[in-house]
Amino acid sequence: MRNNPQLNKNGELQHLLTIDGLPASTLRHILDTAESFLGVAEREVKKVPLLRGKAIFNLFFEPSTRTRTTFEIAAKRLSADVINLNVGTSSQSKGETLLDTVDNLAAMQADMFVVRHSQSGAAHLIARHVAPHIHVVNAGDGRHAHPTQALLDMFTIRHYKKDLTRLRVAIVGDMLHSRVARSQIHALTTLGVPEVRVIAPKTLIPSCAERMGVQIYHDMAKGLKDVDVIIMLRLQSERMRGALLPSSQEYFKYYGLTSEKLALARPDAIVMHPGPMNRGVEIESSVADGVQSVILSQVTFGIAVRMAVMSILMGNEAGETA
Amino acid sequence: MELPEVETLLRELAQQIRPRLTPDSVLVGMHTGGVWVAEKLREQLGVKTPLGTLDISFYRDDFGRRGLHPEVKPSRIPFEVEGRHIILVDDVLKTGRSIRAAMNDLFDFGRPASIQLAVLVDRGERELPISAQFVGVHLNVDGHQDICLNRTESGQLSLSLDDAKGRL
Fold first, then answer.
1. Given A214, A237, A257, B47, which residue has the most CB atoms within 10 angstroms?
2. Do A44 and B81 touch (CB under 8 A)?
């Protein structure tokens, strides 16, 4: 086994930092476990006592509503105590370093950190630093990875399409700035999806894209032909430096998902979006709200997937990482 | 040690349960063996309501030591628990810890009118104040051995003695 800071000496998940390098069996185990957590939301008491007495710190150095909220709900449905910290607005602005912040919270008996940071590698840094009994979940680091988003997307695709090994999946939009796309591509290829396409203008595709085993299209009409799954990415205007795009109107004209373009895909194709959506920029409202859209299911499934990740990590024995 | 035939135990259990059955009685089987037993009992007793199934993995008291069970199955309770008379079914009763977990699990679906417990085998060695109302057979077994319920592809149930894995 190659050196993987996410696994303990028994090869079990200790931290979830990236999809890259995780075996298909680990991904499937998370998805299968999430399946059983789905039912918890339908009970009279929407809660199970699994993580009672555990302290989970949501450590968000970058703003996020949906991801933080779904992690919080997931932890609460497992009966853990959740502490939300928007660090961008407190310690860091007073000059405390990332690892000092983490040490202080660890001294408050943290069992898990859920970390969102604008710098790639922040979650890895924390995972290497903390005591062995503390688990770290990457909730998005810079342009690098967003593993739980990719897992919930895989859960959604599996839910609607069952067999992943016969699918054609198109990821459309700003791959350059997208940690979501990177994690999705690793997850799709690991789980045996035979054809993954990326559709985007040349300026929004990273140089490494081809090495990740995807087919690249610049023409959306060609790229969407006969696909089973369309994943739209958000145009990340806040991360764009310099003139990568003429304007968002122009972008919509060429890469926005309209009902005409959707008609090029297979008739039973599903439309996904990790949120938050820019209506009229990357997706037309009638498509976002249409019958083929599964965007809100993604959010619901996200809670079950995050419950699975948290309980699997917390249940795995602490120890030296491999 | 000669283990009894499961068919005989099922007939014995059904006989004990039948006089206590009400029109709104429901059966809930505990994964995995308890579900098999409950399926057979439901057939023999002619219970109309579909079977409930519980996986107690999220309620176990040994999560801290053992982590999450590798194959958690969804709990399915296809009826209103509130006000119901529930017969909880498991294959082997030992410490009583699984039953405690199952009762906690059930209460999160609603407040049942009553819960009774039916087990194929009661092997004693209780660690909690829990008893079964309906018992197929009482067996004394060496503490290092597990009594396991097995099912063939055709659905035939049988008991076997295996070296203990230390599960509750």
1. A257
2. yes
